[in-house]
Structure formats: structure tokens, C-alpha cells
Specification:
about 375 residues, Phosphatase 2c, domain 1, 11 strands
Length: about 375
């Protein structure tokens, strides 16, 4: 027979019911914890844990695109406007699934009877071919594409007297599989981003009025109607070399990007653009913005491209975890499900403790 331990002697003669209550007291906490842990595991399984045998697993790539490239929705269009006889704007959209890249491009041509149209269309064609044939780091890639276009447009203008002095603006945006995109531009064609209701112009206008705005001598609204608003300081093809501004931008789910010629930005305010961009899908927004520019006078050709980035990757990467709002002063608060479960988990302890206490009192006084 095993020798009794000092803690067991006090139990001798205790009624069976009291002994059972004490066992429940000893194990009840662990049982309650096990039950709560089981429910936690069940909830975790619903949130994406490995399915039980016989269930069908769904990969993250099926449930949600993994990168901005896969989540990108685009639309674009160009319009001659209400005044010009010819459309000297051009735009392009290029996608390469093997290289995992997607580019948007807007060009606004200028010069001569048909020079502007030739310069803008040449730029789109040159960049398209470069996109198909070349690779490399995205920032260097997009910079080299516009530099190549500059050299070839300049050579063409130099070899054809009818095209002398022609050139074009250009703004391009390159998406890939990272949470980063690249923007390159020359001239006053623009790239905007709308994020969480806030509109931001990502590019600086290479123009006379753009420089005056940066110096604080003009407001953005004054620049739109200034007599020198169409004078640009840099262009593709007017000089043998050109400075191309290149920048990287972070990309988040829900971002809306807009590339446009000054036929839009010179006729429609940023606030109006933001309202349309934030309330309509890409195709509808493109058409609405062109209509607005025409309704405002349509004095220039109008080109608009929009890229909408849908949900991709782990949505928690797109921002901080949501914080529940603080309760209003005096407002009643409702306990969470976990708090309620925790409160009920103490119940076996309390009942067992009461039974033991009553039993001990009865045993000692009997």
C-alpha cells in the first residue's frame, strides 16, 4: 500500500460529494481553459487555418490577388475636344505577363501642321517596342524608354523640314509585382493619385506657370487661366538630350491613379477630378472626365488614363489594424464574446469552492 502524503490525511472521512466537489475544483480550471482553447482553434480554422480532412483548401492567390499588378483595373480614352481639328494626343497601355509588368502612357504632341501628332504617336510606338523587347530594374527601364523616345523624335524632326520643332510631353507609370510603382514624366502632362479621399498630384509641371506656382507667384487656379499656361520648359524630341523626372511611389489597395494631358487638367479642377475619380469605376470615370472637359470649353485635346488598384496580398499590410472607437461618455458598453466566455469559465470554480467551504464547515462541526 502506498504511504499517505500529508495533504491526503485531511481528506479522510470527507463525504463522497465533498470529495467530488474538491476534484472538480482542482480540474475545473483546466477543463474550462481547454474548452475555451478548443473554441479559439475552431474560430482560427474559420479564419484560414488548415482545413480538416475532407475539406477543400483555397489558396491565397485564388481568394485575393497577390500584387498590384494582378489587382489593377484600367481604362483610357482620348478626344479631340471642341476647338482643335486634329488630335495630337496619344496614349498607350502595355502589359507583359512574362515580365510581370504593366505600363500606362500619355503623350501630348505639339509643333507644326502635323508635327505634334507625329511626335506623340512616335513616342507611344517607341515605348511600346522598348517595353516588349527590354527589361531591367523598373526605375532605369522607364527612364531609358523615354530617353530613347526623345532621341528618335529629335532625329526625325531634324531629318524632315516639315516636322522641325515638333515635340511631345510624356507621362508614364509602371506597375509590377511589388508594392511600388514608378512614374516618369517630361512636360506638363500629369499623374495624380487618389487615396483615402485625398487627391495628390505626383508630378511637377515642367512649364512656365508650373515654375511660377512653385515659387509662390501664382496659385494653381490662377495658373489654369494664365496666358502662358501652354508654354512648357521640357519636352520629348525638342533637344538631343532631355531630363526625365523619375520617382517611385508606394501602392496600396484602393489607390486610384490618373494620367492625363492638360486638356483635362487645364479645364477641370482637381477637386472635380477627385470627385469623379473616387465615385466611379475606371471606364465610367474616363468618359465623365472627358465630358466635363468638353463642357468646360474643350479648348484642347483631352486624354485620360485611369488605374484602379483592387485588394491584393494580406490586407493588413495595407494599413494598421483597425482600432475600435472609444465608447461615448456615459454609454453602456457590451462585453465581447471572449469576455463573456471568460466570465462563464469562472462559474465552475465558484460553485465548487462554495461546496467545499460548506462541506468543511459541516465536517468540522459535526
Amino acid at each position: 500500500m502506498r504511504a499517505q502524503g500529508p495533504g491526503e490525511r485531511a481528506l479522510r472521512g470527507v463525504p463522497a460529494a465533498l470529495h467530488a466537489a474538491m476534484i472538480a475544483l482542482a480540474h475545473g480550471g483546466r477543463l474550462a481553459q481547454h474548452h475555451e482553447h478548443h473554441e479559439e482553434n475552431a474560430r482560427a480554422g474559420d479564419a484560414g487555418a488548415a482545413p480538416s480532412r475532407g475539406a477543400t483548401a483555397m489558396s491565397d492567390s485564388t481568394a485575393r490577388p497577390r500584387s498590384p499588378l494582378e489587382a489593377l483595373q484600367t481604362a483610357g480614352a482620348t478626344d479631340v475636344g471642341q476647338v482643335r481639328r486634329a488630335n495630337q494626343d496619344a496614349f498607350g497601355e502595355f502589359r507583359d505577363d512574362a515580365k510581370r509588368r504593366h505600363m500606362l502612357l500619355v503623350a501630348d504632341g505639339m509643333g507644326g501642321h502635323r508635327g505634334g501628332e507625329v511626335a506623340s504617336s512616335m513616342t507611344v510606338d517607341i515605348v511600346r517596342d522598348y517595353f516588349a523587347d527590354q527589361g531591367g530594374p523598373p526605375g532605369e527601364f522607364i527612364h531609358a524608354a523615354l530617353q530613347l523616345a526623345n532621341g528618335r523624335v529629335f532625329d526625325r524632326a531634324a531629318s524632315d523640314g516639315q516636322l522641325a520643332g515638333m515635340g511631345t510631353t510624356a507621362v508614364a507609370m509602371l506597375f509590377d509585382t511589388t508594392s511600388e510603382a514608378w512614374v516618369a514624366h517630361v512636360g506638363d502632362s500629369r499623374c495624380y493619385r487618389l487615396r483615402d479621399g485625398v487627391m495628390l498630384q505626383l508630378t511637377d509641371d515642367h512649364s512656365v506657370v508650373g515654375e511660377l506656382v512653385r515659387r509662390g507667384q501664382l496659385t494653381a487656379e490662377e495658373a489654369r487661366v494664365h496666358p502662358q499656361s501652354n508654354e512648357i520648359l521640357r519636352a520629348i524630341g525638342t533637344q538631343p538630350d532631355v531630363v526625365v523626372d523619375v520617382q517611385s511611389v508606394d501602392v496600396r489597395p484602393g489607390d486610384r491613379y490618373l494620367l492625363c494631358s492638360d486638356g483635362l487638367s487645364g479645364m477641370v479642377t482637381d477637386d472635380e477630378i477627385a470627385e469623379v475619380l473616387g465615385s466611379q469605376g475606371p471606364e465610367e470615370a474616363v468618359r465623365t472626365l472627358i465630358d466635363k472637359a468638353n463642357e468646360a470649353g474643350g479648348t484642347d485635346n483631352i486624354t485620360v488614363q485611369i488605374g484602379l488598384v483592387g485588394e491584393f496580398g494580406d490586407h493588413r499590410d495595407a494599413g494598421a489594424s483597425p482600432v475600435p472607437p472609444a465608447p461615448r461618455p456615459g454609454a453602456a458598453t457590451r462585453p465581447s464574446e471572449k469576455q463573456v466566455q471568460a466570465d462563464f469559465g469562472l462559474l465552475p470554480w465558484l460553485v465548487a469552492a462554495a461546496v467545499v467551504a460548506l462541506g468543511l464547515v459541516w465536517w468540522l462541526t459535526s
